[in-house]
Specification:
Elements lengths: L2 H36 L5 E7 L5 E7 L4 H4 L8 H8 L7 H7 L3 E3 L25 E3 L1 H5 L3 H6 L4 H22 L3 H12 L1
Parallel strand pairs: 3-4
Antiparallel strand pairs: 1-2
Helix pairs in contact: 1-4
Length: about 190
């Protein structure tokens, strides 16, 4: 990705993150308040994720699981929390991540430490761009949560099957970067 492409991507991100926050900022706050009442916890979920160049940053989401449930091996998700996840409403606070410059609309998903920060060789190219709310690997594994639920050992399946495929898809995304493809991924995400 050239510097010009990075600048175009950043201007696009800032412009539409501002518009998004102006349009749905009230909805994000309302949903966080409802989450706090229905689920408990703080309403907002914050977690450290691996970002551009392998630097850790704090990702923001609407809380979908009570903090006491989140530490369990098989946490229970309330109907409201599941609805937030299915509708992807829990992701809306990431508009703030985009505005502050830690994320982009399109890129690889921001992973927990132990995955993206362990990339080696050619795969490190993925860390040269900001993680995104959506992207080709995110769209390919749109039903990842359901795929993992169907496995006997979800963690092993994720490490051995899903993660290597995501890495390959994300390498291709960075190597063949094109702004018009970003627009395509955004349209495909919303429609």
């Amino acid at each position: 990705m050239t510097n010009t492409e990075k600048n175009i991507k950043r201007v696009f991100d800032v412009f539409f993150a501002c518009i998004g926050l102006l349009l749905v900022g009230w909805f994000i706050l309302l949903t966080a308040i409802i989450s706090k009442i229905v689920i408990g916890g703080n309403g907002f979920f914050k977690q450290k994720r691996v970002g551009q160049y392998g630097k850790l940053f704090t990702i923001y989401k609407i809380e979908t699981i009570h903090p006491k449930e989140a530490i369990k091996e098989n946490p229970k998700i309330s109907k409201f929390g599941q609805w937030l996840r299915n509708a992807k409403i829990d992701e809306f606070p990431q508009l703030w991540n985009i505005l502050e410059g830690t994320m982009s609309f399109v890129g690889s998903r921001a992973d927990l430490p132990g995955f993206a920060d362990k990339l080696e060789g050619e795969a490190k190219i993925i860390l040269s761009v900001k993680p995104g709310i959506t992207g080709p690997a995110t769209l390919h594994f749109r039903n990842e949560e359901n795929i993992l639920k169907a496995q006997k050992n979800p963690e092993a399946y994720n490490r051995e099957v899903i993660w290597p495929q995501k890495v390959a898809i994300n390498i291709q995304y960075v190597k063949e970067y094109c702004f018009t493809k970003d627009i395509y991924y955004l349209i495909k995400t919303f429609f």
